[in-house]
Amino acid sequence: MHPSFAPFPLARSRRSRRTDWLRDMVRENAVSVDDLIWPIFVREGEGVSEPVKAMPGVNRLSVDMAVKAANEAAALGIPCIALFPYTDAADKNPECTEAFNPDNLVNRATRAIKAAVPGGGILLDVALDPYNSDGHDGFVRDGVIVNDETLMALEKQALVQAESGADILGPSDMMDGRIGIIRQALESHDFSDVVVMSYAAKFASAFYGPFRDAVGASGALKGDKKTYQIDPGNADEALREVARDIAEGADMVMVKPGMPYLDICTRVKTRFKVPTFAYQVSGEYAMIMAAGQNGWIDEEKAMFESLLAFKRAGCDGILSYFAPRVAQILAE
Ligand code: PBG
User: Fold this and answer.
1) The whole model's pTM is what?
2) Cβ 127 under 6 angstroms from ligand 1
3) Which of 21, 167, 171, 329 has most Cβ atoms within 10 angstroms of its Cβ?
């Protein structure tokens, strides 16, 4: 090591920041299209593309349009899409029966996409909230979100999703024991190749607001999700959740939301060395888009910087509504 002053600085960080090629050469992290999972909202109808409030550029797509989007994803090299159903109020009830309907919207969309674009990955959310008239991720009994009864339902939901051709299941409900139940059910029904990406460190966050509107859950939701999602003040607890989900058979884990929880991403990756994903959620997307549209930040630069931050934090991949836009720019 040189002394840092003698009498001028010998070690000059700015030397390697001088030109584009030098910066490119020493950059430690980069975003690639392989890192991206594109979340897509599906709805009933045909030829429909309906804008989502508070998510400029994001639309709810009917199944035929979702097939088109999946084709676009494949053409851009996006490895995987995630499908989320917008469920009509008429299909919601306290028993969440639509969740285990093999012909529900998301299962029909999965089959249609698998038939048209067999090469790409499909991730489905395992959780009851789109189908629950209470808007919760679990059954509500006497005002309490019950755990073990919900597990039985998640098991049924996971099996119809696997049957429809989903490659990855993402339990996002935060009930205790769901990963073990789902993994066992998959193994005993010949779905041992279906990957489980656990929403392991999922926080009770204000940043899910636009999503709940996108899937039609915001009107239904009574109260909040604080009795099952992690308290935003807790990091050790998030690590315990991740440890438990890995022990129960999760192949990959997710941290959600993303940007406000980069410390969790780093600790999860450093400690467990498993494939770690971040979900840059609807509210994060909305913030960047809103500031960009106001001319307050450079939207495109902020988009790339936010995704790079996930890579720097140690994430292997990112679920982001920016996925098609980023992939398009990377392809140019
Ligand atoms: C529901 C679910 C949520 C998101 C993904 N799955 C919302 C919630 O927990 O209320 C949020 C995604 C986003 O905000 O983009 N199980």
Assistant:
1) 0.96
2) yes
3) 171
